[in-house]
Amino acid sequence: MAGGPQDLVDSERLAAERSTLHRVYELGQLPRLKDLLADPAGSLTARFDFGRAQTGRCAVSVAIEACPRLVCQRCMEAYEFPVVAQTEVEIASEPTLVGADPLEEVFTSAEGLISLRELAEEELLLALPLVPACSSPEACGRAPALGELKGAAPVAQETVRPFAALHDLLKTHDRK
User: Fold this and answer.
1) How far is Cα 134 from Cα 71, in angstroms, rounded to an integer?
2) Which residue from 133, 138, 156, 115 is spatially nearest to 31, judged by alpha carbons?
3) pTM of the predicted model as reported, rounded to 2 decimal places
4) H or E element that contains 86
5) Which one, of 54, 56, 83, lies nearest residue 69 by Cα?
6) Nearest to 68 by CA among 86, 82, 87
């Protein structure tokens, strides 16, 4: 039985051919992402455009799209975090060939072979927030009040003052 598209690819050959590859990965199958997800459902769509960087090294433009469900660290509820990102990555065969430019993103590979899944997963991890939080702090994790439900008539809420009786007792005590 034939498997899916090949994961380990020859980056040098693909750069020479200026190839474009497309892959779809299930979020639950990405090992470094699993613990960050509220729900493993969903997928990561990736496009890899191979070519050469100005340095002469093999390079790949990685474009990803995903909508993982993360856990809000304020309310501990799940929420969707849409991600659309694109970045340029150079491929180096040895860590010693990595440039000194801190803005340059370099991915090291053994013998020119790279894992497309690992590259896509890395880009998604870099696009996620360090501390996931709902986009609306005012509504974070709270259920809508009765008056906020769609089509519901506004409900008058009675103000409860738990210390009102204590206030009355203090008044009578001060009169004595």
Assistant:
1) 9
2) 115
3) 0.70
4) strand 83-92
5) 83
6) 82
Predicted confidence (pLDDT) per residue in 9-30, tens digit: 998 899 999 999 999 999 999 9
- Are 114 and 92 contacting, i.e. CB atoms less than 8 angstroms apart? no
The token pair at 130 is: 């360090």
Candidates 105, 6, 93, 14; CA nearest to 52 is: 14
Q: Look at the alpha carbons of 6, 10, 13, 17 in this order and tell me if their dihedral is positive or negative.
A: positive
CA atoms within 13 A on the CB side of 176: 5
Position 67, amino acid: C
Q: Report the run of H or E that residue 52 belongs to, with start and end.
A: strand 43-52
Q: What would the two tokens of residue 62 be?
A: 């990685």
| 109 and 91 Cβ atoms separated by less than 8 Å | yes
- Kindly state the average pLDDT of the residues 143-159: 55
Q: How many residues does the chain have?
A: 176
